[in-house]
Amino acid sequence: MKTALTGIKPTGNLHIGNYFGAIKPALELAEKYDARYFIADYHALNVVKNAAELRGTIRGIAAGWLAAGLDPEKVIFYRQSAVPETFELATMLAAFTPKGLMNRAHAYKAAVQQNAEKGADSDAGVNMGLFTYPVLMAADILLFDADIVPVGRDQVQHIEMAQDIAGAVNFNYKKDLLRIPEPGVLENAAVVPGLDGRKMSKSYGNTIPLFSSVTELRKTIMRIVTNSQEVSEPKDPDSSQIFALYKYFATEDEQAALAARYRAGGMGWGEAKEELFRVVNRELQPIRERYDALIAEPLKLERILKNGAEKARAVAARTIGRLRKAAGID
Ligand code: ADP
Ligand code: TRP
Question: Considering the chain, what percentage of its residues have pLDDT values greater than 70?
Fold first, then answer.
């Protein structure tokens, strides 16, 4: 069986972009693949420097995956930090990673560009964790011989970097030591739009959280940005933010019905938002209930992650052993 692997950084609360772009496709893949899914807590440390906050987001992501349907008996589910072989591999991979490759990473380049726009020093606010982020991510992936890495489109560059780094190692030792991974992007879910039409992202503050109360959820949906068209005017579903989100939650029939109401005129944005809220809540309610139950049982969560880490380390030890031998560090 082929291996699917993915990780989520616990830097904030899960939103529906994470759900459709990462969690849902990953859980579908877990039906057909040997799946290894983890919480990238050391990646989050680059951003979250408050211990209580990080503890909370780690727990939230763990409960989120399980509430969304991850079965820890089938999927190896663990925290990155509980698999120290990751950091050993990252050190080895760093020796095969050209600095120029890291210079080209989107997240780092964006930080440099922001500094340039502000007239600040190009290194301002850039820590080495951000700069070497793709090396750690390559270690996450290559350690587990992943064939496919389900992610949103924004992460594809990182996976291509993992391919390059693995290729450099294999070429040097003239041996297929590391498996070359492929990104698994679901095209229709690749970029879930946020409340303001940009990509939904924690960093833009335009998210619909996966686990908020019903009241909060409704309030959030009411904040979706619309134009100033009158109720009576016919509206174009294809250029509507509300409709773009509706597609993720509604059946084909529901979509056709709402599109017809848009085109007919006589429906205001408020009404369209109510309809969106109805289908979103329909999908999220059962997940939210499972989440609330899990969050109330931290010891159970810990036990699940500990079991996963044990299984993960058994796999990781084999990869590290193979590499150390090939490198002459055995
Ligand atoms: P954020 O952009 O909110 O910080 P992350 O970078 O933590 O989200 O993303 C976690 C996972 O969710 C990644 O696989 C990412 O590609 C996916 N993802 C995040 N936002 C979206 C989105 N709007 N549409 C599709 N996938 C997304
Ligand atoms: N960089 C990913 C993100 O920001 C998280 C991540 C870390 C990851 N390691 C990974 C994703 C390995 C897939 C595979 O979303």
Answer: 98
